[in-house]
Amino acid sequence: MADFVNSPTPEYHRKQLVHILQMAYSGELAAALAYAGHWRAAWKRSERQDIHRIELDEWHHRASLLKMLHELEAKPVAWRDLMMRSVGSIIFLACFFSGWYMPMYFAGRLEKANIHEYEEAAFHARSLGLSQYEEIIKVFAQKEIEHEQYFFNMIANHWLTPLMKSVFHYGPES
Ligand SMILES: [Fe+2]
Ligand SMILES: [Fe+2]
Fold first, then answer.
1. Which fold has domain 9-163?
2. Smallest-distance ligand from the CA of 61
């Protein structure tokens, strides 16, 4: 952080932007795979449709991030992508055994982190004068806000949420 305050050079912003885009690229893979399991494991038709739509958003984000990375002459981080593929695949399967609540809760918590990640990326893009990227990334952040709202509304009034919040620090203000 001190580095950021003292020397916000273009090179610094570029490095940060590429790093966030690389992490987000692999994070979207884990999210998409997790949602692929989540909607298939859901019982309610409306939930299956909603979560499937969210899954498609994540695939779209991932494809756009890859394009951006190529344009920035950068590449995804292979080990990170492999790791997130494993994480996503494990969650895919876990959704069939974990019941209704847990996938909803952790999806909301994960989406919240994604919003911050994209806001930070948009800041670095703006600092580099890459306004077209800034706009695209802001649209992504807005989409993640919608995703987070969806899952938040699912769990907000559930009896387990106060307990989960005390452990995982995500849930409605009391
Ligand atoms: Fe996403
Ligand atoms: Fe999302």
1. Ferritin (1.20.1260)
2. 1
